[in-house]
Amino acid sequence: MTETNYHLNIVASRTPSFLGQIIRLATKFKHNHVSISLNDDLVPLFSFARYNYNSPFHGGFVEESWLRYLYRDNDISVSIYSISINKHQYNKIEDILKNIKLNGCRYDMLSIITKKPLAEKDIPV
Length: 125
Fold this sequence. Notes:
It is a single chain. By secondary structure, this protein is of the alpha+beta class. Helices cover 26% and strands 33% of the residues. The chain has three helices and five strands. It has a three-stranded antiparallel sheet. The protein has a two-stranded antiparallel sheet with strand order 3-4. A hairpin with a 2-residue loop joins strand 3 and strand 4. The chain is globular. The C terminus is likely disordered.
């Protein structure tokens, strides 16, 4: 990547789960799930999600595959946004992702409702 060729890729998706429907109803947004990647091929793709599809009570920071959107017969809408960033911003985001992967992060029903999945003190400056 050159200095001007860094991107933060944001994938907003409309997943067909019951929890996804509840999130869309509560937020009035078209999409209910967001993932990010620092690579244009969307590998790796990171998000906060449930560890078990059937349980909304236990989740965290996960590495996903964009292939998950190809294996469903349901109506899944996806929007991809690419934001140009500089090398410093790229490195900062990469450090934050590494820190979350290393130290974990709480993400469950309570953190969704309170909108506090990550304490500010946990984000490296």
